[in-house]
Structure prediction request, 462 residues.
Amino acid sequence: MPLSLYDSLTREVLPLQPINGHTFRFYCCGPTVYGPAHIGNFRTFVLQDLFRRVLEADNTVTSHVRNITDVDDKTILQSQAEKISLKAFTSHWARKFHDDCAALNLLSPHVEPSAVAHIPEQIVMIEKLIASEHAYAVDDHSVYFRTDSFPAYGKLSRLQEREITTNLTARQESDEYERDSAADFVLWKSRRPQDGENFWESPWGEGRPGWHIECSAMAIKHLGESFDLHSGGIDLIFPHHENEIAQSEAATGNPFAQHWFHIAHLMIDGAKMSKSHGNLYTLNDIEARGYTAEELRYVLLSCSYRQTLNFTWESLAASRKALTRLRDFKKQIGGLTADITSKEKDLNIFTPVLDSLQSDLNTAGALGHLFTIIKSLDIVSLRQKDLVAVRHGFALVVSTLGLKLTDPVVVEPPEGIRQLAEQRWHAKLKSDWLLADSLRNELASAGWSVKDTDQSYQISPN
Prediction:
């Protein structure tokens, strides 16, 4: 059966079918490469990866485009602060992003356009909008989209113009200060002294594109004026995706994306992620605690994409146990079959797992079915033919979830953790129980547990 998915525009769960009848084309808003992506970003990217895998497991041909935002206020300001070129700065962080994607076993997009490489397409699109009076230039050579020229503005977010407010200081800081209306948004930003050499020539003067026009131009260039699905985090519904719809449909006269797929936020121990809270975790932070990228991926998949996911260190520990059970099952059935693309594969009893995934990406239901099936199987009594079918079905499920189930590398604790554990051991030998308990608690807070033996101790991630 085809994948059914909740559509943020219509507020309905709808079956997905390619508009052109053969290739499902979708666009994912990619990272702004000014620093390492955090695990909240990767929740979105992992669920988008699952979405593609579920489509392809049903033999749907896909065309997946995910962009790189390599020019905006953040990239320019940070590269200027570090006194390196914008290209060198963003290339470094793009490589880091790709390394993290590989560790999390994300499929590479078929096309990964960069905003800088598509500035000519953005200029052409802005020219069309000005010619049709959907946009206008102002005295400082910036260009704005006129929202009241697009009657359907707000249809995605259900936000009316009367609800759109603006702050004078914020407008000045973002170089948006000569708009006809507070609801209008920038398409082209005029050059500012703090931009340094990061500017491009345009019919309106030196400057750079606004963030919203970048994605529209890249999506249309690589997927066409109308395509099947657009995706991103739920925080992008307004203003980014709302603005994309307005400027794209005003420029082309055609519907933009047929379906809108948004992923809910990730919380940390019930709190919002932020630098000020010290909980803006990256993949490096996860690995420093002794956990693996696959264990993080499992956590990010563990609940519905439409629900807020509350990340805790305990959830990573639980994912480790779950993955251990799956690895043990893989060994019991003799590994995973190499051929999982054959049309003759027999899904056997694992069909409910894929059915759950095809029903609005119900990952919790899929994982529940998976472990119920594994528990119910008597591997020893299976005939060879049945064992092969189980191996095929399990391999397809594992591949669709994006798991590898390779044996984890033994994680060595950082030197600082070793020193704390050693101090605790010596405190215990001296019967300084108060200090020993204090150091144990400090290790636990850092994500490590210590187990004493007769002659020494063992350290392991919580």
